[in-house]
Amino acid sequence: MPNASVAGSATTATAETEKAAAEALRRGVSSQFGRSLHIRTLDTGSCAACEQEIRLLAAPHYDLQRLGFFFTPAPRHADLLMVTGPMLRAFGVAARKTYEAMPGPKLVVATGACALGGVYQPDAFSYGSVDQLLPVDVWIPGCPPSPLALLQGLLVAVNRLAERISGLSFVAGSES
Amino acid sequence: MPQWFVRGLRRGVVTTRYPDHADASASVLPSPPAFRPEELTGQIADRLVQVCPSWALSRAGDVLVFDAGACTACGQCRESEPRAVATSGEFGLAATDRSALVKRIPLLREAGQ
Amino acid sequence: MTAVKPAESRSLPSVLGGTDRSDDPVVVAPVGPSDLGSVVSELVRSPGSRLADLFASGSDPVMLRLVWALDQSRQYLITESEIHGTQYPALSDIAPAAFAEECEIYEQFGIRPSGGKPLNRVAMPPQSDIDLPRLGCAPAQPPQDVHAPHVVGGHAFEFPFGPVRQVGVESLYYGLVTSGEELVDLYLFTWHKHRGVEWRAQGQTPQQALFHIERTEGLGAIGNGWAFAAAAEAALAIEPAPGALHSRAIALELERLYNHAAAVAALCQACGLAVGRAAAEIALERLLRLNAAVYGHRYLFGVLRIGGVRRMPDAAALRTGLPAAFAELRRAGEALLSTNSFVDRLEATGTLTEEEALRLGLVGPVARASGVAADVRVDHPFGPYAGLLDDAATQASGDALARLNVMLAEAAESVRLINALLESAGSEQGGEAGVPVPAGARSVSSGCGAGYGTDPAGPGAPAHGSGLGWAESSRGESLAWVELDSAGRISRARLRPAAVRNWRGFDDACRAENVFTDIPIIEASFWLTVAGTAR
């Protein structure tokens, strides 16, 4: 889904068209990706811990294939791009080429605190977050996000689980 | 080669039943903080903003802004101000809207403010 | 025994064998630039000494430091040379292990070895629209970045590979030179993941910087973090309590265990053995859950603190969970070593001779698999390791199989060490987690949360200085050097994880009679990270 934080987003009219398209895509996501989803990963400057948790998705304890998720090395074959790291500027060209090599419809999942804007601030070395360069559909926090957190994020991305973060307040003792 | 089959069969299935069933292993992992507004004075809020190494905390007037997306669950805020900050124990934080990860916690209105 | 403040400088002859040699684990010696070449020649020739690091700091003049590990005498020797102008003696002709560092120093500080040899690009990307800050002055000309020409019957073809590679691995960009299937040469580019960690550390307090250093190479959070913490503590002249050092050592061995399990899984994947990979991943997952139960984080982030630790281990959880988790790894290893189709892929693959390992200054299991018995837990005991480990596990054949065997032997040793540490920790009084940080470094103690002592050191206590720290991470010797200013903030932080040394061995290992399909096997047997070198 197009994201308003991508650099260069334009007028209100364009934003509304994008929003309508996003709604249509969201309704279509379950039918497009709900039963079989192919995932390509992209490291834009991570510390390697996120990659280790992602690799464990295919391990016996988690077995993402039982949920219809598969890894693929070919961007052409991929439906979803799982992006780690703070989007280093030196990596920008490689990141855009990978994203553009994926045919639509496609989803982008920013994975881990670095990708979401934590750990690294925007500076000369990095954009600070993935959504500064690529349109992000789902954000998965964690440092690193555990394989269970990654599974929850993927299931949310394909609309098989409802997101619950908007209902959480992070206030101690409150009902959420 | 047969040794692999025998071992595997003997060990049994280790695969999680998530999402059909909750997985207890998630509950022991670090989680973002939960704040106690009744303890959050402006001074404490400023200290918390200083302590956070990942820029997940900032102050907007009489509100503490907490970005659960930037949070690494390192626990330094909780260690620094244990009365004002607890562990949330929350799991499953994926967002389809970046702003859903940013929470505004009201600060304690102190006498004379 | 942690890294202590560097001893008084001595004239070199006495350091190299004179009768008044100090017993300090770290000795610092000034060396005039004109003497540097002959000093390096002498050190390279002395037995039991190796060049552990080469780095620079400052500008006009630039201070060039060489760190020599004198393994036989259990000392580190740091030579300091002030370089005025832009050149210094060519050291990599004498010590080939210095070449990558010479390239890095040229990019960051603008000084180069004399002789005009071409230097490679290390951290600065070739894109002209990206201008990255440096630690010192920019070089007068960019590095030529020329790789040696190759002639293989006149048909060698060179192509870049990556940085986006197979799924679930870090980005890595390398140049492959091939005549078809045979691998003629392989060289790495690392600028695509360079995050400027050393640059960003400048101006931070050691405690603030530690958060980022743990996350420089996440799979080496304890190994690299301990080296950095020890360097900062040496600069601050503080020493963590024995209980805290025990906690660090247990965490370090747990880190070694899970990394070795992950390497076994990667080897199985590279060989296409899915059952082996699954078995190793079950072991890996159990070890990561053990980390979470014992220290509160699967990757052991947040355990360390400047002056001590933030967390003591849950000894009950460790005693309950470790035997079963290790048994999974041990059984997987035994089954793999009796699976001929797997062993055949590793035997004679990616061979590194002992001579190559020494010449390139390799460390860790990679070096030990080639017969180089260097392990800083033995040679430069730190924390509670003195007397705990007599010998490092070594092999002689230097191939991927030897590296696997070393890792499996080390895993078993780590379990023994953890048990020994749990036993002796019981007799340490308290479980004291940290020592107070001196008041002169006021900016260190503020903002670090609970746990710091409130008694500042006396008015005469040093508030700034420099220090060397080290630890044996799962990949090998990790070094760090920290210099603080008078406010206790970092003026220079040098990080040298093991990956910085060992990636150069990867190039050589791939070249020795290997084909394309061997590359993933060699890479898995090294089990390095890109993040550890592109930092």
In short:
The complex is a heterotrimer of chains A (176), B (113) and C (535). By secondary structure, chain A is of the alpha/beta class.
Compute the number of structural domains of chain A: 1
User: Would you identify the CATH architecture of chain A?
Assistant: 3-Layer(aba) Sandwich
Q: Give me the count of strands of chain B.
A: 5
Strand order of the largest sheet of chain B: 2-3-5
Number of helix segments of chain A? Answer: 5
Which protein chains are joined by the largest interface, and how many residues does each one contribute? A-B, 46 and 43 residues
Overall description:
The complex is a heterotrimer of chains A (176), B (113) and C (535). Chain A is α/β, with parallel strands linked by helices. Chain A is 31% helix and 13% strand. Chain A has a single domain, classed as 3-Layer(aba) Sandwich (Rossmann fold). A five-stranded parallel sheet of chain A has the order 2-1-3-4-5, sandwiched between helices. The longest helix of chain A is centred in the first third of the chain and has 22 residues, at 12-33. By secondary structure, chain B is of the alpha+beta class. Chain B has a single domain, classed as Alpha-Beta Plaits (2-Layer Sandwich), CATH 3.30.70. Chain B has three helices and five strands; from the N terminus they run H-E-H-E-E-H-E-E. The mean pLDDT of chain B is 92. Chain C folds into two domains: 12-113, 2-Layer Sandwich (Beta Polymerase, domain 2); 197-440 and 462-498, Cytochrome-c3 Hydrogenase, chain B (Orthogonal Bundle). Chain C has helices spanning 12-15, 33-45, 99-109, 197-201, 206-214, 221-236, 242-270, 274-295, 315-337, 340-346, 354-359, 364-368, 376-379, 400-427, 442-445, 498-511, 519-526, and strands at residues 26-30, 49-57, 62-70, 75-83, 87-88, 112-113, 157-161, 173-178, 183-189, 304-305, 308-309, 466-473, 476-484, 490-496. A four-stranded mixed sheet of chain C has the order 1-4-3-2. Chain C has a three-stranded antiparallel sheet with strand order 7-8-9. In chain C, helix 5 (206-214) runs antiparallel to helix 6 (221-236), helix 6 (221-236) runs antiparallel to helix 7 and helix 9 packs antiparallel against helix 14 (400-427). Residues 1-20, 428-432 and 438-463 of chain C have low confidence and may be disordered. Classes of the chains: A alpha/beta (176), B alpha+beta (113), C alpha+beta (535). At the A-B interface, strand 5 and helix 5 of A face strand 1 of B.
